[in-house]
Fold this sequence. Notes:
2 copies of one chain form a homodimer. Chain A is mostly helical. Chain A has a single domain, classed as lambda repressor-like DNA-binding domains (434 Repressor (Amino-terminal Domain), Orthogonal Bundle), CATH 1.10.260.40. In chain A, 69% of the residues lie in helices and 0% in strands. The longest helix of chain A is centred in the C-terminal third of the chain and has 17 residues, at 83-99. Chains A and B meet through helix 5 and helix 6 of A and helix 5 and helix 6 of B. The structure holds a DNA duplex.
Amino acid sequence: MSTETIGEKLRQLREQNNLPLRKVAALIDIDVAILSKMERGERKLTKEIVLRLADTYKYNVDELLVLFLSERIMYEIQDEALGEKALKVAERRVKYLKENKGK
Amino acid sequence: MSTETIGEKLRQLREQNNLPLRKVAALIDIDVAILSKMERGERKLTKEIVLRLADTYKYNVDELLVLFLSERIMYEIQDEALGEKALKVAERRVKYLKENKGK
DNA sequence: ATTGCCGTTGACTATTTTTGTCAAATTTAT
DNA sequence: ATAAATTTGACAAAAATAGTCAACGGCAAT
Protein backbone atom coordinates (compact mmCIF):
# COMPACT_ATOMS: atom_id res chain seq x y z
CA MET A 1 0.00 0.00 0.00
CA SER A 2 1.16 3.54 -0.63
CA THR A 3 2.27 4.38 2.84
CA GLU A 4 4.82 6.95 1.87
CA THR A 5 4.36 10.68 2.13
CA ILE A 6 4.34 12.85 -0.94
CA GLY A 7 7.61 14.35 0.22
CA GLU A 8 9.23 10.94 0.26
CA LYS A 9 7.75 10.18 -3.11
CA LEU A 10 9.15 13.38 -4.57
CA ARG A 11 12.59 12.78 -3.16
CA GLN A 12 12.51 9.30 -4.61
CA LEU A 13 11.60 10.68 -8.00
CA ARG A 14 14.35 13.24 -7.85
CA GLU A 15 16.93 10.61 -6.97
CA GLN A 16 15.72 8.33 -9.73
CA ASN A 17 16.36 11.20 -12.10
CA ASN A 18 19.75 11.82 -10.60
CA LEU A 19 19.03 15.46 -10.00
CA PRO A 20 20.43 17.46 -7.10
CA LEU A 21 18.13 19.75 -5.13
CA ARG A 22 20.04 22.65 -6.58
CA LYS A 23 19.06 21.84 -10.13
CA VAL A 24 15.45 20.97 -9.47
CA ALA A 25 15.04 24.06 -7.36
CA ALA A 26 16.37 26.13 -10.23
CA LEU A 27 14.09 24.41 -12.71
CA ILE A 28 10.94 25.02 -10.75
CA ASP A 29 12.16 28.37 -9.50
CA ILE A 30 12.18 28.05 -5.74
CA ASP A 31 14.88 28.18 -3.09
CA VAL A 32 16.89 25.02 -2.44
CA ALA A 33 16.18 25.24 1.24
CA ILE A 34 12.45 25.22 0.66
CA LEU A 35 12.55 22.25 -1.65
CA SER A 36 14.66 20.39 0.86
CA LYS A 37 12.13 21.13 3.55
CA MET A 38 9.23 20.16 1.35
CA GLU A 39 10.73 16.79 0.57
CA ARG A 40 11.20 16.16 4.24
CA GLY A 41 7.73 17.35 5.17
CA GLU A 42 8.97 20.32 7.12
CA ARG A 43 7.25 22.73 4.78
CA LYS A 44 3.90 22.23 3.18
CA LEU A 45 3.80 21.70 -0.52
CA THR A 46 1.56 23.73 -2.75
CA LYS A 47 -0.44 22.42 -5.64
CA GLU A 48 1.61 24.61 -7.95
CA ILE A 49 4.90 23.07 -6.84
CA VAL A 50 3.54 19.56 -7.16
CA LEU A 51 2.49 20.31 -10.72
CA ARG A 52 5.87 21.67 -11.63
CA LEU A 53 7.65 18.71 -10.09
CA ALA A 54 5.41 16.21 -11.86
CA ASP A 55 6.34 17.98 -15.05
CA THR A 56 10.02 18.04 -14.22
CA TYR A 57 10.11 14.34 -13.48
CA LYS A 58 7.59 13.48 -16.20
CA TYR A 59 5.56 11.62 -13.66
CA ASN A 60 1.82 10.95 -13.40
CA VAL A 61 0.34 14.24 -12.21
CA ASP A 62 -2.89 12.78 -10.90
CA GLU A 63 -1.15 10.28 -8.68
CA LEU A 64 0.91 13.02 -7.11
CA LEU A 65 -2.05 15.35 -6.75
CA VAL A 66 -4.11 12.69 -5.02
CA LEU A 67 -1.26 12.04 -2.64
CA PHE A 68 -0.88 15.76 -2.08
CA LEU A 69 -4.58 16.35 -1.44
CA SER A 70 -4.97 13.32 0.80
CA GLU A 71 -2.16 14.64 2.93
CA ARG A 72 -3.79 18.02 3.27
CA ILE A 73 -6.98 16.28 4.28
CA MET A 74 -5.18 14.19 6.85
CA TYR A 75 -3.61 17.30 8.24
CA GLU A 76 -7.06 18.70 8.95
CA ILE A 77 -8.11 15.76 11.07
CA GLN A 78 -4.84 14.92 12.74
CA ASP A 79 -5.30 13.77 16.30
CA GLU A 80 -9.05 14.05 15.94
CA ALA A 81 -10.90 11.10 17.37
CA LEU A 82 -13.75 11.77 14.99
CA GLY A 83 -11.52 12.03 11.97
CA GLU A 84 -12.67 8.90 10.24
CA LYS A 85 -16.32 9.69 10.75
CA ALA A 86 -15.72 13.15 9.38
CA LEU A 87 -14.06 11.66 6.33
CA LYS A 88 -17.05 9.46 5.65
CA VAL A 89 -19.46 12.34 6.08
CA ALA A 90 -17.36 14.49 3.80
CA GLU A 91 -17.44 11.77 1.18
CA ARG A 92 -21.20 11.53 1.31
CA ARG A 93 -21.56 15.26 1.11
CA VAL A 94 -19.21 15.56 -1.83
CA LYS A 95 -21.13 12.86 -3.65
CA TYR A 96 -24.37 14.60 -2.87
CA LEU A 97 -23.04 17.86 -4.22
CA LYS A 98 -21.85 16.16 -7.36
CA GLU A 99 -25.21 14.54 -8.05
CA ASN A 100 -26.95 17.85 -7.61
CA LYS A 101 -24.26 19.87 -9.26
CA GLY A 102 -25.35 23.25 -10.54
CA LYS A 103 -28.40 22.96 -8.28
CA MET B 1 -29.52 13.21 4.66
CA SER B 2 -27.65 15.88 6.53
CA THR B 3 -27.20 18.32 3.73
CA GLU B 4 -27.04 21.40 5.88
CA THR B 5 -23.92 23.29 6.79
CA ILE B 6 -22.75 23.49 10.36
CA GLY B 7 -23.55 27.18 10.31
CA GLU B 8 -27.15 26.46 9.40
CA LYS B 9 -27.30 23.78 12.05
CA LEU B 10 -26.03 26.16 14.68
CA ARG B 11 -28.47 28.87 13.74
CA GLN B 12 -31.26 26.34 13.90
CA LEU B 13 -30.19 25.29 17.37
CA ARG B 14 -30.01 28.86 18.54
CA GLU B 15 -33.49 29.59 17.25
CA GLN B 16 -34.87 26.45 18.84
CA ASN B 17 -33.51 27.75 22.10
CA ASN B 18 -34.99 31.17 21.48
CA LEU B 19 -31.70 32.89 22.05
CA PRO B 20 -30.65 36.08 20.28
CA LEU B 21 -27.15 36.33 18.84
CA ARG B 22 -26.39 38.91 21.47
CA LYS B 23 -26.94 36.51 24.34
CA VAL B 24 -25.16 33.53 22.83
CA ALA B 25 -22.24 35.72 21.85
CA ALA B 26 -22.00 36.92 25.44
CA LEU B 27 -22.24 33.38 26.77
CA ILE B 28 -19.43 32.04 24.64
CA ASP B 29 -17.50 35.27 24.81
CA ILE B 30 -17.15 36.38 21.23
CA ASP B 31 -18.38 39.38 19.29
CA VAL B 32 -21.93 39.30 17.92
CA ALA B 33 -20.69 40.14 14.45
CA ILE B 34 -18.42 37.13 14.40
CA LEU B 35 -21.11 34.75 15.56
CA SER B 36 -23.44 36.13 12.92
CA LYS B 37 -20.85 35.57 10.26
CA MET B 38 -20.05 32.09 11.49
CA GLU B 39 -23.66 31.03 11.35
CA ARG B 40 -23.85 32.26 7.79
CA GLY B 41 -20.59 30.66 6.77
CA GLU B 42 -18.86 33.95 6.16
CA ARG B 43 -16.29 33.23 8.83
CA LYS B 44 -14.79 29.87 9.58
CA LEU B 45 -15.72 28.25 12.84
CA THR B 46 -13.10 27.01 15.22
CA LYS B 47 -13.25 23.79 17.16
CA GLU B 48 -13.29 25.77 20.36
CA ILE B 49 -16.38 27.74 19.36
CA VAL B 50 -18.17 24.61 18.25
CA LEU B 51 -17.51 23.07 21.64
CA ARG B 52 -18.83 26.08 23.48
CA LEU B 53 -21.95 26.22 21.35
CA ALA B 54 -22.66 22.52 21.80
CA ASP B 55 -22.44 23.15 25.51
CA THR B 56 -24.63 26.23 25.35
CA TYR B 57 -27.34 24.41 23.43
CA LYS B 58 -26.82 21.15 25.27
CA TYR B 59 -26.48 19.41 21.96
CA ASN B 60 -24.55 16.32 20.89
CA VAL B 61 -20.94 17.50 20.66
CA ASP B 62 -19.76 14.69 18.44
CA GLU B 63 -22.40 15.30 15.83
CA LEU B 64 -21.41 18.94 15.61
CA LEU B 65 -17.71 18.17 15.56
CA VAL B 66 -18.12 15.68 12.75
CA LEU B 67 -20.06 18.24 10.77
CA PHE B 68 -17.41 20.82 11.53
CA LEU B 69 -14.51 18.60 10.55
CA SER B 70 -16.18 17.33 7.41
CA GLU B 71 -16.65 20.89 6.30
CA ARG B 72 -13.01 21.70 6.84
CA ILE B 73 -12.12 18.63 4.83
CA MET B 74 -14.45 19.64 2.02
CA TYR B 75 -12.88 23.06 2.00
CA GLU B 76 -9.51 21.49 1.24
CA ILE B 77 -10.74 19.71 -1.86
CA GLN B 78 -13.18 22.25 -3.18
CA ASP B 79 -13.22 22.39 -6.95
CA GLU B 80 -10.65 19.61 -7.11
CA ALA B 81 -11.46 17.00 -9.71
CA LEU B 82 -9.51 14.46 -7.69
CA GLY B 83 -11.22 15.31 -4.44
CA GLU B 84 -13.11 12.07 -4.04
CA LYS B 85 -10.10 9.95 -4.83
CA ALA B 86 -8.08 11.94 -2.33
CA LEU B 87 -10.75 11.32 0.29
CA LYS B 88 -10.60 7.61 -0.26
CA VAL B 89 -6.82 7.57 -0.11
CA ALA B 90 -6.91 9.64 3.07
CA GLU B 91 -9.31 7.15 4.59
CA ARG B 92 -7.09 4.24 3.80
CA ARG B 93 -4.07 6.03 5.15
CA VAL B 94 -5.81 7.00 8.37
CA LYS B 95 -6.88 3.41 8.89
CA TYR B 96 -3.38 2.24 8.22
CA LEU B 97 -1.99 4.66 10.75
CA LYS B 98 -4.51 3.55 13.31
CA GLU B 99 -3.69 -0.12 12.91
CA ASN B 100 -0.01 0.62 13.32
CA LYS B 101 -0.47 3.26 15.98
CA GLY B 102 2.54 3.91 18.08
CA LYS B 103 4.50 2.05 15.40
C1' DA C 1 -42.68 58.80 13.40
C1' DT C 2 -40.00 57.16 17.24
C1' DT C 3 -38.27 53.65 20.13
C1' DG C 4 -36.34 49.20 20.87
C1' DC C 5 -34.51 44.95 19.52
C1' DC C 6 -32.17 42.00 16.36
C1' DG C 7 -29.18 40.89 12.87
C1' DT C 8 -25.92 42.31 9.08
C1' DT C 9 -22.21 44.78 6.98
C1' DG C 10 -17.86 46.89 6.24
C1' DA C 11 -13.85 49.28 7.63
C1' DC C 12 -10.15 49.03 10.45
C1' DT C 13 -6.44 46.96 13.51
C1' DA C 14 -4.05 43.28 15.62
C1' DT C 15 -2.34 38.80 15.67
C1' DT C 16 -0.93 34.59 13.77
C1' DT C 17 0.53 31.74 10.10
C1' DT C 18 2.74 31.11 6.05
C1' DT C 19 6.31 32.16 2.75
C1' DG C 20 10.76 33.69 1.02
C1' DT C 21 15.78 34.74 1.49
C1' DC C 22 20.12 33.90 3.02
C1' DA C 23 24.31 32.21 5.12
C1' DA C 24 26.39 29.07 8.11
C1' DA C 25 26.75 24.30 9.47
C1' DT C 26 26.63 19.57 8.48
C1' DT C 27 26.79 15.56 5.73
C1' DT C 28 28.22 12.91 1.71
C1' DA C 29 30.97 11.67 -2.11
C1' DT C 30 35.16 11.94 -4.70
C1' DA D 1 40.97 17.27 2.02
C1' DT D 2 37.96 19.73 -0.80
C1' DA D 3 34.01 20.13 -3.25
C1' DA D 4 29.27 19.32 -3.91
C1' DA D 5 24.92 18.47 -1.78
C1' DT D 6 21.88 19.01 1.78
C1' DT D 7 20.17 20.68 6.16
C1' DT D 8 19.33 24.08 9.58
C1' DG D 9 18.03 28.26 11.79
C1' DA D 10 17.51 33.17 11.91
C1' DC D 11 15.32 36.74 9.99
C1' DA D 12 12.08 39.59 7.14
C1' DA D 13 8.12 39.95 4.04
C1' DA D 14 3.68 38.86 2.89
C1' DA D 15 -0.67 36.84 3.41
C1' DA D 16 -4.35 34.86 5.91
C1' DT D 17 -7.04 34.94 9.94
C1' DA D 18 -9.16 36.86 13.99
C1' DG D 19 -11.03 40.59 16.78
C1' DT D 20 -13.20 45.34 17.52
C1' DC D 21 -16.38 48.63 16.61
C1' DA D 22 -19.91 51.53 14.84
C1' DA D 23 -23.22 52.36 11.43
C1' DC D 24 -26.98 50.49 8.89
C1' DG D 25 -31.47 48.15 7.74
C1' DG D 26 -35.59 45.50 8.96
C1' DC D 27 -39.49 45.00 11.85
C1' DA D 28 -42.76 45.30 15.43
C1' DA D 29 -45.21 47.91 18.79
C1' DT D 30 -46.83 51.84 20.01
